[in-house]
Fold:
Amino acid sequence: MIQGSTELVAIVGSPIAQVKSPENFNRWFADHQQNIAMLAIDLQQSALDDFVQTLRGWQNLRGCVVTVPYKQLLASRLDVLSERSIALCSVNVIRREADGRLVGDIVDGDGFLNAARKHNFAPQHKQALVIGTGGVGSAIAYSLCQAGVSHLVISDLSQERVEAFGDLLRRDFPKIVIGANPTSLEPFDLVVNASPVGMGATVNGPMPLPVALMETLQTTTLVADVVTSPAITPFLAFARRMGCPIQAGPEMALAQLGNLGHFMGVTPLEI
Structure:
């Protein structure tokens, strides 16, 4: 039960009904007898500036998780950013300091890798494809490079974004082969959909890659999706029919709970 003495954290985005963070965090808080609660905030973009000002003065709010479509929009409105958030111009978590300053970081990539390691995926010297160059996709791609992949290929509907993000990765990781827009999935050890395609989809809903390209998947490839609702997207269902191991969006959401909570000061890093 939320009381006057309850400390709060929040998650902000739009839409917000599909996110798993509130149930994951609130279950952890309850299981560990913490007088803390997470609120889900579905915010219109026109209210972002007012929301940031409200955060500065919200004295019983410890921090805020950021989800689509505000990861990049909020990064420019904060007082301090981590090095990787500066590189990616994106945040997925904000900590409110006691003096009202807002500090941002992006830990999507860390959370994704935490989940992938549970599927025995070790990124060193591997080849990976990341679909989507938005906040979550760029974070996952950046973390894969930090973790030592040998080849990284990025794909997006916007060729301009692919080229700009590819240039950023080549600058920061000159020893890694960075490619774009694959013609076959056969070489990849990991294929991850980091776009919203599949959110709220039915069994025969849209996929982020053409069927002909999906049919080139190898059974050894880990196929992952960041979409949390439905847990098994049409993309993952297709990969499973191809015999591939799959990683669903809720796995990443749960795996990064410690990263998010530790940054906000409400959980240990390892939980």
About this structure: The chain is about 35% helix and 20% strand. The longest helix spans residues 159-172. The domain at 7-107+256-264 is CATH 3.40.50.10860 (Rossmann fold).
